[in-house]
Amino acid sequence: MAFVEDSNFQTALSESAWHINNLLDITKTDDINAELLSKIEEVYLPTGKPMDEIGNKLDNIDNAAYLYSKALHCWLTENPRPSKISNRKNADCALRLAEWNLFFIPDDAMFLPKGTDASGSILNDLKTRAEKCAGNAITLLEQNENDSLITRSRNAECVYMLIKSKWLIYTHNFPLEEKQRILPDNEQWKEIAGLCDRYLDNIRAKNPDMPPHQTVLFLRATYNWLTGSNPKEVYDQFRTTERSIGTSWFLDRILLCKNKTNEPRLFYVSVKSNKNGSKFFARIEEELDPCEHDQKLVGREGIAVLGSEYIYLFGSNKPANFSKITKPVVIWINGAGPKIGKPFDVREAL
Fold first, then answer.
1. By three-state DSSP, how is residue 257 classified?
2. Which residues contact 12 (CB under 8 A, 6 or more apart)?
């Protein structure tokens, strides 16, 4: 790389900004790929100026691609970019990518080999470092001029980065991790739900054919259920989320816990079946030892009752519809929505 330091090479780079402008055709409001800009910036790094010029031109036509590229830089580590990533779902490839840029840690964090002591310590170390990066990204994206650019450009990716960053800082987890029991407080939930709406509005406005990110669908559906939105609407949202997440929809992502202590919340429920008696759903009738700081959930319904939980509640008996059952349960949320859990299973699951 000695040629990079050659003055003639640097001069040639500096004078080639015009050619890059032509290649990118920076006269349109179409989004330019932020990853492409990052690669170009690596080449232009020795000169400094050309990328600033390109970035300013993009900003001036309400294109937030360069801003998103700068926000991605907040997550960079000291490790070099991996030379070849053939499959991001491959554990080794995903780990090398995450060790270069922490933003690429998957939202479910399922990219490390399971069943090894090292996998937990590696993930915890990466998450600790990622939280600092998330704070830097939030600071950059929420600057007045940048927030205004995101609004004008209807950029969804910047908003998604804010959602992922804030969830990580508020809960110390990525949004789709399994067995989460640290949750945002009510105001933080409201903030994240607002960002989800902003993301979905931007997607519909700019790329109506692009499927929304599964993380956004899951968090928005979960918030709507927690806050008692229209049950039919919530049901439809979770069906969309289930299809988006795919074959891992059944994994338990969130355990409803008390905000102050992170202890599982316990409930008494009533149960009814669907018309043909093939499925059973619960409604919350009472919370045991409720906390004033937590979302009030009595009356929430549509909570799935599955095989082992059915046996826990009824044994071999058939339930009478909407009869209150004085056996405590916990509530998990997965890609298909809320479901009943047994309290004594919680310690085994976490």
1. strand
2. none
Token digits of residue 55: 């970035």
**CA angle centred on 275, ends 273 and 276, rounded to 5°:** 90
| CB of 241 closer than 8 Å to CB of 228 | no
- Burial-class residue 121 by CB neighbours within 10 Å (0-12, 13-18, 19+): exposed
Are the CB atoms for 20 and 54 separated by under 8 Å? yes
CB atoms within 10 A of CB 187: 8
Dist. CA 274–CA 235, nearest whole Å: 14
Assess contact for 175 and 163: CB atoms under 8 A. yes
Q: Crossing angle of helices 17-24/7-15, nearest 10°?
A: 40
N- to C-terminal Cα separation, the chain: 49
Quick count: other Cβ atoms within 10 Å of Cβ 235?
14
**Dist. CA 180–CA 169, nearest whole Å:** 14
Q: Give pLDDT, residue 206.
A: 86
Concatenated DSSP letters for 87-135?
-TTSHHHHHHHHHHBGGGS-TT---S-TT-HHHHHHHHHHHHHHHHHHH
What is the DSSP secondary structure assignment for residue 33, as one 8-state letter?
P
Confidence bin at 307 (pLDDT 50/70/90)? confident
| Partners of 235 in the β-ladder | none
Q: Which of 338, 90, 168 is nearest to 237 (CA)?
A: 338
Give residue 43's pLDDT.
56
